[in-house]
Amino acid sequence: MSLPIVAIIGRPNVGKSTVVNRLAGGREAIVFDQPGVTRDRTYQPAFWQDREFMVVDTGGLVFDDDTEFLPYIREQALAALVEAAAAIFVVDGQTGPTEGDREIATWLRQQPVPVLLAVNKCESPDQGLVQSAQFWELGLGEPHPVSGIHGNGTGELLDALVAHLPPVDQLAATDEIRVAIAGRPNVGKSSLLNAFVGNNRAIVSPISGTTRDAIDTVVQRGDQVYRLIDTAGIRRKKNVDYGPEFFGINRAFKAIRRADVVLLVIDAVDGVTEQDQKLAGRIADDGRACVIVVNKWDAVEKDTYTIYDFDKQIAARLHFVDWAKRLYVSAMTGQRVPKIFDAVDAAVAQHRRRVTTSVVNEVLEEAVSWHTPPTTRQGRQGRIYYGTQVTAQPPSFALFVNSPSLIGENYRRYIERQFRQNLGFDGSPIRLLWRGKKTRDLERDSVNRATKV
C-alpha cells in the first residue's frame, strides 16, 4: 500500500473499531458489545487536512493468555505496527488504567513508532479531561479524550496525528480489480489470501468462523492492481445467531456485490454442498463474474478419474454457474494458486466486454434459422426482431420481440446457449432482457416486475 498506515492498538472492548469508524468516516468495522470481535487487521482509507492515510483496526491485545485466537491476534497487531507510520493506543476512559493497558504501554514504548494516546468513551467534554488525566501514568505523552460514538475530540486527535504522517502526493487513478473470496467456513479462504500475499495477512485456524470481517488487501501483479477481499465463512441462515457472525456474513454479501469477480472456494474433501449451491446462486443473481476454486486438492486421494468425477459433480450441482472456470488448487502447498490470477483476468475481461449490435444480430439470425420460436395452441408465434447490448458488468442484452409472453423458458435458455457458444463470455453471467414491441407489452412487463419485487 502506498498510503501511510496508522495502526489502532488496545486491549479488548475499549472501542477500537468505533474509533476506526469515526476516523475513517464510515461504518465498515464490525462493532458489537463483546470482546474479541475484531481478529484480523482490517484497513479503511481516511484523510485529514491535506493528508491521506489508511487506518488499520486490530484485535484486542492480551499478553498473558495464549488460548484460542489471542496469539494470532498479537501476531496481527505486531504486523500492523511494523508497517505503520504511527499508532493510536486506545484506552477506556470510563474504566481507567488497567494492568493490561500498562503492559501494552510498556510494549509500545519499545517500538520505533510514534504513539498517540486516545482515551475513548469520554462522552462529556468536561468529564473527559478528568477521565483522561489519569492516563498520564502510562508514559506515552498527552492523553487525548475522545468519543468514538459522538466524535468529541477526534479532530484534535487527528491534528496531532498528521504531524507524524509524510505528505502524500495525489495518487494516479488505478483500474484495480476487486476480488471477493467467498465460501463456507473453514474451506481455506484465509489460507488462500495468505498464499496470494505471501505472508500471514489473515488469521488461519482450524476453528471455523475465525474470519469475521471483510478484509481488504491490495496486491500488484505486473501492472495490474488487485483488491482481495477475504470474507467471513457463510453458514446456513438458521445456524447463525444475531451477533458478530451475523454482521460478518452481511459484510460477506456486501463484498460479493462490490466485487468484479468472486472466487467461490469449495472444500475438495467435503465436495459440493447445499450451501455451496446457494452461494453460487447468489453470485449469479448479483451478476458477478466467478471462478470456482476447489481448495485442499492435495488432501484428496487421486486416481486417473478423480478430477473428471469432481468435474461432473460440479457440473451437476452448480449448473447455474456452468460458465465459471474451475481450478483445483492447494493453498497449503501453493499448487496452481498463481493460475487463479490468470482466471480472474480472463473473467473480468469478459464481464466488462461489449459486443457490437451487428454481431448480436448475426448470432440471433443464425439461432432463429436453426430453431424458430414455438407456436402456441392459439396459433401465435413469437418473433425476435433484433437485439443490442445495453450494458456491461454483467453483459446485458435487450432482445426486442413481438410479445415476451410468447417466448417460453426453454426457448430463452436456447438463445442464451447460442450466445454462449458464439460469443463466449466465459467466467461471466449474461442477462437477456426480453422487450415487447408494443407499448402495452412494455407496460405489462413493468407491472409484472413490480409484482415480483
Automatic annotation (TrEMBL):
Top-level taxon in the UniProt lineage: Bacteria
Gene Ontology MF term list: GTP binding; ribosome binding
Residue ranges of domain EngA-type G in the record: 4-169, 177-352
PROSITE patterns recorded: G_ENGA
InterPro entries xref list: G_ENGA, GTP-bd, GTPase_Der, KH_dom-like, KH_dom-like_a/b, P-loop_NTPase, Small_GTP-bd
The entry's keywords: GTP-binding, Nucleotide-binding, Repeat, Ribosome biogenesis
Residue sites binding GTP 2 per the record: 183-190, 230-234, 295-298
Binding site for GTP 1: 10-17, 57-61, 120-123
Any GO BP: ribosome biogenesis
Pfam families membership: KH_dom-like, MMR_HSR1
Subunit record text: Associates with the 50S ribosomal subunit.
Its biological purpose: GTPase that plays an essential role in the late steps of ribosome biogenesis.
Protein family according to the UniProt entry: Belongs to the TRAFAC class TrmE-Era-EngA-EngB-Septin-like GTPase superfamily. EngA (Der) GTPase family.
Name of protein: GTPase Der
